[in-house]
């Protein structure tokens, strides 16, 4: 771990706990900052805050008192989930106090090269694929960030012989000042999280923050099939490495003659890749490009791609039962993700969908439902999705109470050769705490068959 003096003897407010806040507060304390932690949950119900208190860190819980911002803080480190409309954040910005996220801390202390991965879709799959390829290629990678392990925690253990592979959300990237990955990847840019960012421009700007501090010694891997993405990163100083599923990009990664190439070098045949879905080719190409920049052997890339079947809850193959293949795509919390999942399968598909009602309709799914033989709906959006199914000409539409009930019903209405796909197109919060819980319920129900 590198020593950083950026926060030494500075007054820093850590706003919001969870994993990132706890790690950030402890790390700042080690870096000799004067740390105050503020969390909404009362101290009696807040073991994380109690632990920090025992470390000698000042803790204020139970509310977010606006008067805190009169205490002369020089930095605010906020939980990524806290919106910028929060009164304390608004007050900090009015006072010109930098509002950062813990990935900034991770960058400042990491002795390892950082590879930052962002985009609307495909971040987790790309991050996991790249980690596995680097590991097989002897690069000693560490995995961190929005994928589940706090980056500033992993960075404390990272040495110069490691590579830190970090999945980054737009929420995290809004809060950076010096953060500079040696390799940055933007998988794609679509419309998302407008309730948080306020506009498409602000959302995209948060994503392209990943390259704002890169120099000519760094690399930016981007989706060359998206003109708006190319325009959004036109200011970058990094060396741009494109990837494309539709054309040859001779200075990057692309598909030619049913194989993946990098800069005119054959890497792997598409027949050797087990990860389903055309959309996953984007993720694979971006991971391959990063690997080749680190001279990972083609044998390692091929080895991983020949066994990597997907990340849990993301078009994850669960099991085959009497010729029916079950796939868990619970991470599909919007129509865009469900479109990609439906596009991944060419044969008869039974779609399980539904969840939290955010006020949108689902008619944009209609062109992608041509292979859906039965639609099973649940949750708050059940009737909306049923109406979309009727418009798509689906004859068999069934409403059930939840995912667990949907699985045996799907099996009853299927035949050998069918795909049974959970891809809800909705958030899970009407019935489940997280999309992971929803996916696990689906997996359990499949195994019960």
UniProtKB/TrEMBL annotation:
Residues 313-426 form the Mur ligase C-terminal domain. InterPro entries: Mur-like_cat_sf, Mur_ligase_C, Mur_ligase_C_dom_sf, Mur_ligase_cen, MurD. GO terms for cellular component: cytoplasm. Its main location: cytoplasm. Keywords: ATP-binding, Cell cycle, Cell division, Cell shape, Cell wall biogenesis/degradation, Cytoplasm, Ligase, Nucleotide-binding, Peptidoglycan synthesis, Signal. Residues 117-291 form the Mur ligase central domain. Its EC number is 6.3.2.9. GO terms for molecular function: ATP binding; UDP-N-acetylmuramoylalanine-D-glutamate ligase activity. The keyword Signal applies. It is an enzyme of class 6 (ligase). ATP binds at residues 119-125. One of its GO terms (biological process) is cell division. The keyword Isomerase does not apply. It is found in: Cytoplasm. Pathway: Cell wall biogenesis; peptidoglycan biosynthesis. It catalyses: UDP-N-acetyl-alpha-D-muramoyl-L-alanine + D-glutamate + ATP = UDP-N-acetyl-alpha-D-muramoyl-L-alanyl-D-glutamate + ADP + phosphate + H(+). Residues 1-24 form the signal peptide. Belongs to the MurCDEF family. Cell wall formation. Catalyzes the addition of glutamate to the nucleotide precursor UDP-N-acetylmuramoyl-L-alanine (UMA). This is UDP-N-acetylmuramoylalanine--D-glutamate ligase. It comes from Rossellomorea marisflavi. The lineage of its organism: Bacteria, Bacillati, Bacillota, Bacilli, Bacillales. The gene is murD.
């Amino acid at each position: 771990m590198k020593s950083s003096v950026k926060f030494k003897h500075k007054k820093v407010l850590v706003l919001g706990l969870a994993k990132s806040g706890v790690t950030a507060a402890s790390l700042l304390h080690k870096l000799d900052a004067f740390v105050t932690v503020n969390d909404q949950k009362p101290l009696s119900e807040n073991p994380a805050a109690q632990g920090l208190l025992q470390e000698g860190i000042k803790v204020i819980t139970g509310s977010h008192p606006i008067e805190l911002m009169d205490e002369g803080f020089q930095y605010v480190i906020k939980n990524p989930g806290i919106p910028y409309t929060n009164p304390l954040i608004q007050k900090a910005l009015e006072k010109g106090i930098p509002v950062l996220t813990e990935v900034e801390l991770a960058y400042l202390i990491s002795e390892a090269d950082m590879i930052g991965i962002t985009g609307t879709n495909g971040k987790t799959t790309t991050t996991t694929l790249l980690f596995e390829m680097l590991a097989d290629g002897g690069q000693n990678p560490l995995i961190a960030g929005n994928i589940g392990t706090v980056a500033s925690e992993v960075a404390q253990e990272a040495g110069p012989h490691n590579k830190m592979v970090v999945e980054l959300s737009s929420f995290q990237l809004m809060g950076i000042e010096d953060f500079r990955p040696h390799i940055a990847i933007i998988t794609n840019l679509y419309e998302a999280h407008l309730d948080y960012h306020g506009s498409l421009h602000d959302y995209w700007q948060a994503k392209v923050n990943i390259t704002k501090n890169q120099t000519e010694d760094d690399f930016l891997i981007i989706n060359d099939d998206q003109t708006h993405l190319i325009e959004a990163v036109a200011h970058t100083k990094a060396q741009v490495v494109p990837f494309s599923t539709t054309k040859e990009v001779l200075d990057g990664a692309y598909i030619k003659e049913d194989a993946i190439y990098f800069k005119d070098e054959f890497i792997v045949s598409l027949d050797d890749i087990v990860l389903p879905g055309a959309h996953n080719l984007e993720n694979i190409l971006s991971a391959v490009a990063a690997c080749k920049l680190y001279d990972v052997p083609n044998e390692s890339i091929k080895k991983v791609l020949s066994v990597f079947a997907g990340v849990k809850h993301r078009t994850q193959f669960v099991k085959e039962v009497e010729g029916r293949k079950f796939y868990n795509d619970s991470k599909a919390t919007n129509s865009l993700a469900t479109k990609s999942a439906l596009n991944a399968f060419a044969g008869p598909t039974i779609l399980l969908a539904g969840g939290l009602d955010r006020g949108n309709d689902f008619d944009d799914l209609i062109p992608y439902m041509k292979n859906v033989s039965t639609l099973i709906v649940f949750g708050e959006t059940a009737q909306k999705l049923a109406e979309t199914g009727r418009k798509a000409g689906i004859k068999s539409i069934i409403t059930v109470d939840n995912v667990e009930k949907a699985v045996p019903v799907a099996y009853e209405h299927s035949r050998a050769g069918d795909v049974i796909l959970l891809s809800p197109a909705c958030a899970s919060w009407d019935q489940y705490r997280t999309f992971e819980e929803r996916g696990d319920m689906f997996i359990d129900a499949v195994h019960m068959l």
